[in-house]
């Protein structure tokens, strides 16, 4: 029984505080490999000792003390390792990374903000940033990260190793950027969380429309980031966007896992608590000058959530917000969403003109939602042959099976079995 209780306690601590433990060790020793290895060794020690000695009053402090001792022992045994870590520690000390006091641990600092910015450093590729964030902050195993990227385990393991090697070789410090650096560095962190959520909200491929595990992790990490940076309005804006969007999760599929489009969703199944929380976060995110793109997207999501029915959605306001978003973050994806909203406000002909311009520009070549949107507008106009061709083009590009089934159903409604 004691062993089972100890195992549950270790599991609970590691699940809740693993990223804190790793961040504290990485900040102290400047090395992700050492942090990960000694954290695992501390967990093994806890599984051995806690059933005998009892679960300590402060489990995280116990694990941190044990891991630090094991790290120091390893450094003493390996001179080359010690010399390399000494160089990294100089960089860390210059950046102001300080270890918690050895005694007491009454107020263990939360160094995860440093880990956020290290994993999302601009010297790393966008793919590496996402993989490291999932591995070290979300706590996913390497096979779980591999599944998120739809690559073999060995491939993802190599990518993570290369990313950690890049951190070491470039001497990327474990630190929070200075205030004057933050505006340039924070967007990369927010972008990683948004990409993780997007893949969870609408999987790019596979047999399931949703990846709830990824969406939940993105929201959890966004909450942590908001707690660590409470004064950053775009952090609040991103968290609001994720909550207001994810609130519709339960209504986005039916009992068989088939996709349910926004206009057909049972809005009574939307999560009212998440909507309310997102709306509260949206107020400070939109207050004051310099509103950011995530806050604007959250405002658009809020308008969808506030509509009692699809037909009563405030499309004029949504188009106006997309106009603002295009100024803040001009991109073909924003233009695509604006065109769809414009079609709802002004009719399918108006939206189709913009979609045809996007098609001609070629920037969204390979993105299935562009021909899918064209197909829907052409269908509404009664242009059956053109709509069918557009649906077929979308079917050639889509990777997600429930989305494929939706497109195939709509094509079948036009052309018959």
TrEMBL record:
Keyword annotations for this protein, in alphabetical order, are: Sigma factor, Transcription, Transcription regulation
The organism's place on the tree of life at top rank: Bacteria
Where's the RNA polymerase sigma-70 region domain? 14-79
Q: Which residues form the DUF6596 domain?
A: 185-283
Keyword Coiled coil present in the record's keywords: the answer is: no
Report the family membership. Belongs to the sigma-70 factor family. ECF subfamily.
Q: Report the protein name in the record.
A: RNA polymerase sigma factor
> Which lineage?
Bacteria, Bacillati, Actinomycetota, Actinomycetes, Kitasatosporales
């Amino acid at each position: 029984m004691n062993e089972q209780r100890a195992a549950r306690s270790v599991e609970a601590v590691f699940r809740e505080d693993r990223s804190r433990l790793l961040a504290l060790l990485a900040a102290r020793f400047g090395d992700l490999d050492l942090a990960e290895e000694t954290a695992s060794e501390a967990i093994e020690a806890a599984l051995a000792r806690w059933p005998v000695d009892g679960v300590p009053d402060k489990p995280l402090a116990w694990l941190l003390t044990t891991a630090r001792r094991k790290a120091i022992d390893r450094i003493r045994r390996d001179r080359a390792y010690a010399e390399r870590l000494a160089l990294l520690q100089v960089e860390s000390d210059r950046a102001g990374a300080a270890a918690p006091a050895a005694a007491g641990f009454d107020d263990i600092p939360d160094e995860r903000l440093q880990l956020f910015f290290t994993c999302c450093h601009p010297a790393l590729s966008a793919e590496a940033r996402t993989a490291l964030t999932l591995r070290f902050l979300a706590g996913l195993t390497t096979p779980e990260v591999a599944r998120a990227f739809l690559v073999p385990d060995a491939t993802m393991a190599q990518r993570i190793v290369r990313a950690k090697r890049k951190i070491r070789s470039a001497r990327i410090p474990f630190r929070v950027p200075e205030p004057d650096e933050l505006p340039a560095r924070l967007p990369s962190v927010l972008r990683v969380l948004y990409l993780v959520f997007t893949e969870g909200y609408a999987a790019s491929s596979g047999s399931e429309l949703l990846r709830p595990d990824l969406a939940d992790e993105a929201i959890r990490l966004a909450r942590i980031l908001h707690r660590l940076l409470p004064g950053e309005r775009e952090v609040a804006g991103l968290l609001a966007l994720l909550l207001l969007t994810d609130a519709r999760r339960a209504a986005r599929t039916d009992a068989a896992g088939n996709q349910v489009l926004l206009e057909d969703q049972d809005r009574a199944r939307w999560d009212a608590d998440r909507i309310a929380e997102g709306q509260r976060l949206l107020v400070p995110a939109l207050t004051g000058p310099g509103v950011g793109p995530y806050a604007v997207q959250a405002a658009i999501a809020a308008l969808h959530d506030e509509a009692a029915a699809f037909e009563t959605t405030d499309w004029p306001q949504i188009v106006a917000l997309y106009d603002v978003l295009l100024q803040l973050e001009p991109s073909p994806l924003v233009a695509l969403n604006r065109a769809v909203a414009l079609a709802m406000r002004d009719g399918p002909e108006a939206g189709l003109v913009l979609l045809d311009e996007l098609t001609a520009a070629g920037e969204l070549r390979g993105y299935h939602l562009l021909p899918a949107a064209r197909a829907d507008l052409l269908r509404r106009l009664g242009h059956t042959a053109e709509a069918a061709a557009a649906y077929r083009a979308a079917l050639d590009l889509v990777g997600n099976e429930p989305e494929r089934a939706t497109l195939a159903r709509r094509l079948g409604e036009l052309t018959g079995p």
